[in-house]
Amino acid sequence: MIEAAADRFSAVGRITPLLSSPFLDEIAGRRVFVKAEVLQHTGSFKFRGAWSAISALAPETRAKGVLAFSSGNHAQGIARAAQLHGVPATIIMPKDAPALKIANTRALGAEVVLYDRKGGEDRNVIGERLRRERGLTLIKPFDEPQVIAGQGTCGLEIAAQATELGITQASVLTCCGGGGLTAGIALALEAKAPAMVVRPVEPEGFDDAARSLASGEIRRNTGPEAGFCDAILTPAPGEITFPIMQRLCGAGIVVSEAQTRKAMREAFLRLKIVLEPGGAVALAAALFHGDKLDHDAVIATASGGNVDAALFAQVLGEGA
Amino acid sequence: MIEAAADRFSAVGRITPLLSSPFLDEIAGRRVFVKAEVLQHTGSFKFRGAWSAISALAPETRAKGVLAFSSGNHAQGIARAAQLHGVPATIIMPKDAPALKIANTRALGAEVVLYDRKGGEDRNVIGERLRRERGLTLIKPFDEPQVIAGQGTCGLEIAAQATELGITQASVLTCCGGGGLTAGIALALEAKAPAMVVRPVEPEGFDDAARSLASGEIRRNTGPEAGFCDAILTPAPGEITFPIMQRLCGAGIVVSEAQTRKAMREAFLRLKIVLEPGGAVALAAALFHGDKLDHDAVIATASGGNVDAALFAQVLGEGA
Known about the structure:
Two copies of one chain form a homodimer.
Chain A: H1 2-9, E1 18-19, H2 22-28, E2 31-36, H3 46-56, H4 59-64, E3 66-69, H5 73-85, E4 89-94, H6 99-107, E5 111-115, H7 123-134, E6 137-138, H8 145-164, E7 170-175, H9 180-192, E8 196-203, H10 208-215, H11 241-248, E9 253-255, H12 257-271, H13 277-288, E10 297-302, H14 309-317
Parallel strand pairs in A: 2-10, 3-4, 3-6, 4-5, 7-8, 7-10, 8-9
Antiparallel strand pairs in A: 1-2
């Protein structure tokens, strides 16, 4: 399925580069490579899964339109993939999602329906009504085989690019929300680079994947719903993604907000790329959690760059 | 020479991606592609020319070390290329160059010798003394055939990437200082994509290339030496680069500081890359000078990203 997704993706997708800098190697004490998914269409890896799922639909189903729930990056991925297919997209987003993500989703041609997650509105009720009324197909953000296959195309690229650099053994760090990217990459590497070990990375307070992997069953986050790393604050790993992660991944790694902010600054300074908080946790782990890594080479996904300018400017200012 | 440089470059260099965004297309009213040289090693295209020149030296000459004058990006390119070759680099830089560029050049293993350009010190006298004392080889920043050939490798990539997208006719906008990148790309496209036209772009007050092309002979800038776009404030086109530009390039384009700052913000928002001022002028021309362009597609070089965090944060703040 991943290779079929890669075939469908090749006409429109970008092969994102694997970046490095001697300055990052020095901080980490090992070779660090960054898979720059911020350079993917719509600024995150989510376009891969969105394209995979929408391109796999039967044409008559696709023509009626697609529906998604998303705090942002999945929304933009779905909106753009639908736009390129010429079909309508309806996106249900929380009212408090970053302004840039809401605006971008609309500008990419989607109809955005906002709901008040703090006020207790149930997005599932809203979504189910829209789905039935309009005959839409729901594209889930991660617990959906075609989405996982699409994210897996990132893993195929990592395997090919690492092989070209002569690297077969590495810790592969993923920014982990519901586990779509993590599971997809793990499946691809199982086939193409079996000596690499995927390690999901999460922010403090939202370490559901790490706790689930440690305990052997799905654990939910119990703290607040919102936080700095908005893109990856999923309540729990998925029912499809978790068994894949359990079979293939090493232990999860948890990073602090301060480490995440430092990683954003280092990516700006050394790689010239823009990371959003949720897209910076894997690099934060690569730079500041070397004691938990087993390999001389580490590959970190930089999974998204859709950050408001004001926040990014603030984070840059902290480095002075 | 360009193809030989590309052969030598292939072991270490990055093929930088050609990025795009529907948001940029909308601003420009045409298809916009950005050649993201900020993702090259050391954050600018200068590594190409530096690698080309140093790798072309005879081993015994190279072993004695190289010397460069540079306000920054050429310095970092030379420092890193020398470091990777295991040979010493001495870099003469103005005291008022951006702090980040001076620090990076040192951290890449080069010896940095600072001079006071405002106080009337002559860098050529300092350089000639060091060159003789140490047996160094001077690598000029642009008026040097092997450097031009190295920058030309960027043009070979543009031709190949555009062809893959089905684009054969385009305006190719270059961020132009002394003309090394401009001449190199123009030579590569003459051979590989002859229906593309290179247009050098400069900031207001430093439009020596535009005036030289218009008049048919080399014109110098007569205003201040320093300015916002520090990377490309060369006093005049080179004696080798200018005849190449004259034979192959279309008219120069001049952009304002405000347009350059807007281009930096758009690249942050839409492409997730970091542009320094001098690396943003070509995108500024693509976005805001469409009336001067002859093609439905425009390819802009984003030539460097070595900008201090404080300045970048300030530029981001202006978009609020």
